[in-house]
Specification:
With about 250 residues, this protein is an alpha/beta fold. It has helices at about 1-5, 20-25, 30-45, 50-55, 60-65, 75-80, 110-120, 125-130, 175-195, 210-220, 240-250; strands at about 95-100, 135-145, 150-160, 165-170, 200-205, 225-230. The longest helix has 18 residues, at about 175-195.
């Protein structure tokens, strides 16, 4: 209780929608900006205590800051004041995505279809990891071009962006042809699937590895919203993520 009072000395700082158990978790966060972010997200996203604990364990705050590698103190301030605001496609991207809820023991080899099956079986947890406003549309969504069938691994819809979000799963390192294929999918969805009220579709390629320099050149000149992020089956090392954030902030000073 003394600890709680030191962090929240003014009763007006307390939000009645949060339980004592929420605040027990929040007061353990020393950094004010980080604690404010998680508190805002608990309120805005109606997180249960279990969901808060999971997001703390997987370092959501740091992963959002590292999502595009160009973050600065303004981004930290924005997250601490408002939580995660989804206005642009880049706002929904994380680096890395964490699939610890699948219980997969690395480095056990998996086929892409097996990973997809496991994510569908744990769709509630996967939606929580994806973030705000995601709704599941389906898996293996067929696209037919010139009598040739292609299949998008997983399709979602984000109600904040009013856009379809296409996800392709890759078990190995990202290749340039993966980006070209996703670009084709997005062009098809924009011309054939989208309604008048829908925004431009978004493509996310989840891969085991990516080369940032090669990715920058491969995406140059593409008008579609294509992103590539890595994923892990383990909860990431917090200290390593924090040090990466501090490095990016220092470079931007």
């Amino acid at each position: 209780m003394r600890w709680f009072y030191n962090v929240y000395p003014d009763y007006s700082m307390i939000n009645e929608s949060l339980s004592w158990s929420h605040y027990v978790e929040l007061i353990t966060i020393k950094d004010d900006a980080k604690r404010n972010f998680y508190e805002k997200e608990c309120i805005n996203s109606n997180w249960s205590v279990r969901e808060l604990q999971r997001q703390l364990d997987t370092s959501l705050f740091e992963r959002l800051l590292l999502s595009d590698g160009k973050n600065n103190k303004e981004k930290v301030l924005e997250l601490s004041k408002e939580g995660q605001v989804v206005n642009n496609p880049s706002d929904i991207i994380k680096e890395p995505y964490v699939f610890e809820f699948l219980g997969i023991k690395e480095p056990k080899p998996l086929l892409e279809k097996d990973l997809e099956y496991k994510l569908i079986r744990h769709i509630e947890d996967f939606l929580l990891e994806l973030g705000k406003g995601f709704m599941f549309v389906g898996s293996q969504q067929r696209i037919t071009l010139n009598n040739t069938d292609y299949y998008v691994d997983m399709v979602f819809y984000n109600k904040f962006l009013k856009s379809y979000v296409l996800i392709d799963l890759k078990m190995n390192k990202l290749k340039a042809e993966n980006l070209g294929q996703m670009n084709m999918y997005l062009n098809y969805y924009e011309k054939v699937v989208n309604s008048e009220d829908d925004g431009k579709p978004i493509g996310i390629i989840l891969c085991a590895e990516k080369d940032k320099v090669a990715l920058e050149y491969a995406l140059g000149g593409l008008s579609n919203n294509i992103f590539a992020s890595t994923y892990t089956y383990y909860i990431p090392n917090k200290e390593q993520l924090i040090s990466e954030v501090e490095k990016v902030l220092k470079e931007n000073e």
